[in-house]
Amino acid sequence: MFIEPYHNQQQTGQRTGWIEVICGSMFSGKTEELIRRLNRARIAKQDVKIFKPAVDTRYHHEDIVSHNASSISSIPLKDPAEMLSLAGNCDVVGIDEAQFFQESVVEVANRLADAGKRVIVAGLDMDFQGKPFGPMPSLMSIAEYITKVHAVCVVCGDVANYSYRKIPAQNQVLLGETDSYEARCRKCFHT
Hints:
Elements lengths: L8 H4 L5 E7 L5 H14 L4 E6 L10 E2 L5 E2 L2 E3 L4 H5 L5 E4 L9 H10 L3 E7 L11 H7 L2 E5 L1 E2 L6 E2 L1 E4 L15 E4 L1 H5 L1
Parallel strand pairs: 1-7, 1-8, 2-5, 2-6, 6-7
Antiparallel strand pairs: 3-4, 9-10, 11-12
Pfam family, one: TK
Catalytic activity: thymidine + ATP = dTMP + ADP + H(+)
Protein name: Thymidine kinase
């Protein structure tokens, strides 16, 4: 269970920023958890800005949409550096599908947190080959909080943390859904 961090801003007179990473395989609920945290921040009357890579158009060109169809509006970007000016004076920054951004998203997340913002990042920690994916390992290493969520293996029903690609494409980035990927446990992924 994730207990949302609380940093007392009254004592210092300035906001304390930090980075939270939500990671796991496809179909594990990463985006759903990101949306949940961002909605809670809005309920707490915090100003929230949300970003996603422009390349991710699977469900919607602008909104972030989870596999269970919950959604939240966001700003699609090609370059993570754009977040620095677009975030403005907000309290919370949400970033979905961070594995699709360039490595510079790590520096951007650090700068946003250093500016006193709560930065919540969601993304795949491993690619279809079971290898670390894009900037996610670096984001996890600098984060104050990491939540790894799991799916259910479609083969045996065990805890799944791998994204198995069902089609023969070899490029690392291939946008797809259940037609192209399925969640698998370690044993079923390697079999």
